[in-house]
């Protein structure tokens, strides 16, 4: 049983070096990355393009292996993917030939999350999360009939239906227009359980290019620098919850976004030069 003081995730001096198979060229994408993520925390990672954000997330997910250091969840080494760590990407990753209902229920029918559940229990769980993300009435639709925002709601419902303890989100709102994005940020906080006790919330690691998105969502923002990717700062977002739309125009919101932008501005310009 994990102790209360134990972090949910612990990354210790994690590094990742890619070696190109044909040329043997080496890229040190991440180096000496050390971070604890508390249980129930909403943690955002920002940094200039190519600084290693996705590499870090993929290693936590177990989709990629560190070449140095160690990653633990609840005190156990992460050795590969696991149902307790759910991943969501920018590109929806829905099955185009399956309905909303079948997309959401896919992991329950074909993976370990549904083990031991009866068909009725699986259906109940699918309905619960379809309702939670605001897709009631759209269960029989197919992805091509949905807007981008609705597709990401489906992907979120599928992620939640699988019951992971940790949500790993790689720019999940990155493909959406600005308005849909702001609406879904609010929805995401509601679904995460912003109004609930901290102990009842999932642990979230959320990658974004949007500094304002990170400040709106996060308890803490990890700022990465690049070449190689490292933690350059960890900023506490001391804006009380629940967070309403109106906080975006408050002075503290602007101060925090300015502070984070000042930390990555030079590298961000270099990354696109
Ligand atoms: N499979 C791979 N093989 C070789 N190099 C890779 C591989 N994946 C990523 N890299 C390199 O590792 C570095 C970090 O990439 P990564 O995608 O993690 O950064 P990122 O911060 O998520 O980027 P972005 O903000 O553009 O999404 C980059 O230099 C990238 O080119």
TrEMBL record:
A Pfam short name: ABC_tran
Annotated SMART domains: AAA (SM00382)
Superkingdom of origin organism: Bacteria
GO terms assigned for molecular function: ATP binding
Keywords, in A-Z order: ATP-binding, Nucleotide-binding, Transport
The keyword Zinc belongs to this UniProt entry's keyword annotation: no
Family: Belongs to the ABC transporter superfamily.
Protein name: ABC transporter ATP-binding protein
Organism whose genome encodes this protein: Ruegeria sediminis
Lineage start: Bacteria, Pseudomonadati, Pseudomonadota, Alphaproteobacteria, Rhodobacterales
């Amino acid at each position: 049983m994990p102790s209360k003081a134990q972090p949910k995730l612990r990354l210790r001096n994690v590094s990742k070096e890619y070696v190109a198979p044909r040329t043997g060229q080496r890229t040190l994408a991440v180096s000496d990355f050390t971070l604890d993520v508390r249980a129930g925390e909403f943690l955002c990672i920002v940094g200039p393009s190519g600084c290693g954000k996705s590499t870090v997330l993929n290693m936590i997910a177990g989709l990629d292996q560190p070449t140095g250091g160690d990653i633990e969840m609840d005190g156990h080494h992460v050795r590969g993917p696991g149902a307790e760590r759910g991943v969501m990407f920018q590109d929806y990753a829905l099955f185009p030939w399956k309905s909303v209902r079948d997309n959401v229920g896919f992991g329950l029918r074909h993976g370990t999350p549904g083990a031991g559940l009866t068909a009725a229990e699986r259906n109940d769980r699918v309905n619960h999360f379809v309702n939670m993300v605001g897709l009631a009435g759209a269960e029989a639709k197919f992805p091509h009939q949905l807007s981008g925002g609705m597709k990401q709601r489906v992907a979120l419902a599928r992620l939640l239906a699988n019951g992971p303890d940790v949500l790993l989100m790689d720019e999940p709102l990155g493909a959406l227009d600005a308005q849909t994005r702001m609406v879904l940020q609010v929805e995401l906080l509601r679904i995460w359980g912003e109004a609930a006790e901290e102990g009842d919330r999932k642990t979230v690691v959320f990658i974004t290019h949007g500094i304002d998105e990170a400040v709106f969502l996060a308890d803490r923002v990890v700022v990465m620098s690049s070449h190689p990717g490292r933690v350059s700062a960890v900023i506490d977002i001391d804006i009380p919850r629940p967070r309403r739309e109106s906080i975006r125009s408050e002075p503290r919101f602007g101060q925090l976004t300015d502070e984070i932008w000042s930390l990555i501005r030079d590298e961000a310009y270099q990354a696109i030069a």
